[in-house]
């Protein structure tokens, strides 16, 4: 069996396309599992700098994975509440756009961190300002707009017949 056939069979078996809560939740759970594995087995045990309370402290890299999981977990919980509470069904295209923009926002924030982290070894490390995160803020703005668009284009889930 071809790999594309296996992937297609698996994709059709999981209703991930229709449920943004499942899509965002799966990514959040994957990142949380990666963080848990890193804490338990010391996989990502190396220390990375983090600005905290005006000081630069060294924390395990697993904490950074937890921070990356936060936007996906938040959107998953919001989508789950809307899907279950308001019985809404979401379209695939706005969900994909929202997911991609959220990924890009997170990746840009990681890029800013990776460019800042090496400067902490100097006497005067670079200062992170809101303008440092202009790209991440722009992508998050587009992600939020895609989120609103996804909610606006969603339809009411018909009541199941007995």
Descriptive key words:
4 strands, 64% helix, two-stranded antiparallel ribbon, 162 residues, mainly alpha
Strand adjacency order, main sheet: 1-2
Which structural class should the secondary elements be placed in? mainly alpha
According to DSSP, the number of beta strands is 4
Helix count, DSSP H or I runs of 4 or more residues = 5
Mean pLDDT: 81
How is the biggest beta sheet arranged? 2 strands, antiparallel
Through-space gap between termini: 39 Å
Total count of domains: 1
Instruction: Determine Rg (CA atoms, Å).
Output: 19 Å
The percentage of residues in β strands lies in 5-15%
The percent of residues in helical segments reads: 55-70%
Question: What is the string of helix and strand elements?
Answer: HHEEHEHHE
Tertiary shape: globular
Low-confidence stretches: none
Task: Summarize it.
With 162 residues, this protein is mainly α. Helices cover 64% and strands 10% of the residues.
What does this structure look like?
The longest helix is centred in the middle third of the chain and has 25 residues. The protein has a two-stranded antiparallel ribbon with strand order 1-2. A two-stranded antiparallel ribbon has the order 3-4. It has 162 residues and is mainly alpha-helical. Strand 1 and strand 2 form a beta hairpin.
């Amino acid at each position: 069996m071809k790999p594309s056939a296996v992937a297609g069979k698996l994709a059709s078996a999981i209703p991930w396309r229709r449920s943004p809560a499942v899509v965002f939740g799966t990514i959040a759970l994957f990142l949380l599992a990666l963080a848990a594995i890193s804490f338990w087995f010391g996989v990502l045990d190396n220390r990375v700098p983090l600005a905290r309370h005006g000081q630069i402290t060294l924390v395990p890299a697993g904490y950074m994975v937890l921070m990356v999981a936060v936007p996906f977990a938040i959107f998953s919980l919001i989508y789950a509440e809307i899907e279950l509470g308001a019985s809404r069904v979401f379209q695939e295209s706005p969900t994909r756009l929202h997911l991609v923009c959220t990924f890009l926002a997170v990746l840009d924030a990681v890029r800013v961190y990776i460019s800042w982290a090496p400067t902490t070894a100097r006497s005067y490390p670079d200062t992170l300002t809101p303008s440092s995160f202009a790209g991440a803020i722009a992508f998050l703005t587009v992600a939020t707009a895609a989120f609103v668009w996804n909610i606006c284009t969603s339809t009411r889930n018909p009541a199941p017949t007995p």
